[in-house]
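Re: duplicated header lines in exported structure tokens

Our pipeline writes sequence and tokens for each protein into one text file. With two proteins the header for the second block appears twice in some exports. Here is an export where it did not happen, for reference. First protein block:
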Amino acid sequence: MNAWPWLGFPESRPVLSGALRSRPLFVRPSQPPSRLLFSDPTDGIWVSKAKAFGVPFCWSFAHLANPHVAVVGMTGSGKSFFVKSFLTRSNLVWGTHALILDWSGEYASWVKQSGGHVIRLGEASLNLLDLGGMTPSQRTRQVVEALALLTDLGQFARERQWVRFAIEQCYAMRKFSKRPPTLKDVSAWLKAKSRRASAWDKREMENAVLLLRPLVIGGSDFFAKPSSFALEKLLEAGLVCVDLTALPSESFRSLAGLSLLQFVAEKMRACGPGEGRRLKWWVVLDEAWKICREDGDPVAIVREGRKYAFGLVIASQNPMDVHSAIFSNVGSLFMFRTAFSDSLDYLQKTLGFSDAVRRRIGLLPVGCCAVNLQWAGFSQGDAFFLERVDGEALLEWVSLEVKSVAFSFEKKKFLSELQKLGVSASKALELEAWLSGKSNAVDAGSWVAKLSDVGLADDAVRRHLKQCGFSDEQVSDSFAASFASFLPKSARLVEVDVRP
């Protein structure tokens, strides 16, 4: 007897097999087979569980096209937390060394806590002419290329030739010395030679000295003094962070980063092919795209890394900042929340995933991500989703909400960015306590009002909100909500007719 008489009795209808085939009852989720996701846990890096069926995901490059990893996502999406956990577990499983070029100071404190080494350039010095196991001719070529790319020397061909010749001569004069020459020696050689040169050559040499001057004068001679650390041991010290934040400008940071990558690329080739399926080294670049060119060393590491057991981890808030030669060659892409339409357009066009996947990436909670893997010998599938990444330690997060749109950030980094805008250490502690009292979740209007209370100027508050990813409209809404919070509840806005 029918338990639900109002539904009537079920009817049976004949259905042709063709019609049934066009409407499949069971559809396999777009994720790789379990045997590829769940590799040997003693020879892979545990990440998280897949959203579909909860299959454990242990990352291994055994079946991938290469070991390189790209991580994209907006500020506060969990991108940096993932990279830190990934490097930690890679060291535990494979004993992999890691060199981090830290543009923003994101990793220095974590590396210290993990027992690694932090080199703070600006306080420490890096002699650009250190050989680091290379020949003088190799290093001369690299130094001239770096100076041409990142200084005005690139605009003057003759002056560039004189600098190259001067470096070669300085190396020759130090042939039997253990201490390599410096850029100050190069500048001194050019000055000495210009005194006895013809008028034309003298002018070119003097111009070369002027072009080198910003790198050799006192106070900015970070690259013109003997190195305060051993370059050749940089890749043999476990976890190493080169903190570039103390350098005075972006060009100085780029020069340091490019010089170190030149050394890494030559070291990679000198070490010879890797053995087995274990990586020897990770090189981590976070927002370092000024030094990435089509013929540059990051691209060389991407193209040759698997053969030499080198892996590159590249992270960026905006995937369009990643050089296409790098982006198209990474074996693993982890996509955390990316709410900007141009970034989503670029990812969808590059990877060819569906509109449904695109919508989910824009709504991902903190710590969850979509993954796209390039298989060796297998066809590429659609992106699949992971639950919240399992990290070595849970971080404290702050949430700002403006008109039902929430932005999440790692709390320590969030407050440290405010100190760069002028908030004192004592006021930062006050803000930290205030956020804790609000369970680390506040509306943007209240946050703007609180920043004004601690003395932060409106222009600095606007810059802070823009750094957090707010649009111009969201910044205006936040200030409007802040102003409304100061009005008494009985206050009302009225329209006044001012026409004559």
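Second protein block, exported in the same file:
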Amino acid sequence: MNKKIYISLLFILVATFGCNVTSVNPGNNVTSAKPDDTIPTVNLPPMKDSFIRGVDISMIPEIEALGGKYSKNGTEKDIFKILKESGVNSVRARLWVDPKSPTGDVYGGGNNDLARTIELGKRAKENGMYFLLDLHYSDFWADPGKQFKPKAWDSLTFENLTQKVYDYTADVMKAHKAEGVVPDMVQVGNELNSGMLWPDGKSWGQGGGEFERLSTLLKSGIQAVHDNDSGKDILIMLHLAKATDNGLFRWWFDAITDNNVEYDVIGMSYYPWWHGSVADAKANMEDVISRYNKPIVLVETSFPFTDQNGDSLANSYGESGPIEGYAVSVEGQTQYLKDIFQLMRDLPSDQGMGVYYWERLGYPYSVQHGRRTPA
């Protein structure tokens, strides 16, 4: 039986940030699939030093635990050093409450518990990077289609749930402080279109009072961040998916504003094969800036460089044709990123704070001998 593990990079972005390609060079029983050496390089628009050129690389601890290693110009290096040298100045890390089953089986997706999230933050800070902490308030993925409570919180009354949000957030902040890594920005919730901590904090379909309850939960988490900020001015982000949907953003942020939720930054997710054109995203961003006077971070985006499948799972985008005018190719991916950075830099009143590319160092994996392995 073939015991080799074949790894391929999903996203070749290092060239876009201005250096050579980084490839995965795994351990003894792993064969690396090296990307094409002829990667186009483009000059990004001039940006101030504080402009976020970020990545969400929450999978890294799991990749490294499975033997994944990275190199630049043929020399193996710590991935954070490669990113820093390549122009990346910020790291985003997600946090799940208890990402394993009652019997102790891990859920996957990077198994991002508190220890791993602190590890990512420490490595970011050691390399002089900005650190964005993404609190999901769930044991696994939280997004517009699912915002499930942590299993241990499931039977709490709303009053007790509100207190639990505070206590949990405070404990997370204290744990980071104890390890010498205080986040620069905290997301209180992830892709909150449909609320959080269902059904208590769901933003629709609960018989009235939805945004009052959601706002109460958000305020509890936000207060806990501020009460445990170690004297640091930590920015609070509220994050929605579907950056092209102006009606959604107005509906949600109008209600949050009416309920006096205080926050600093609006985060957006934008995946063009799901959400539509760059032009529509731009129009929404400009309206949101005008309406709420808050800076915007494009906190999740990505673009495929190939239509080939690396494993048995379906690709997020399964076609071969262009996406909103961009070819599914290395060149198309590079041009997309150039245009996205230009869009964010040119937003009115200098309110585009930056971009995070989502899981740029992830790769496919399969299951062999009862355990998850890269594939």
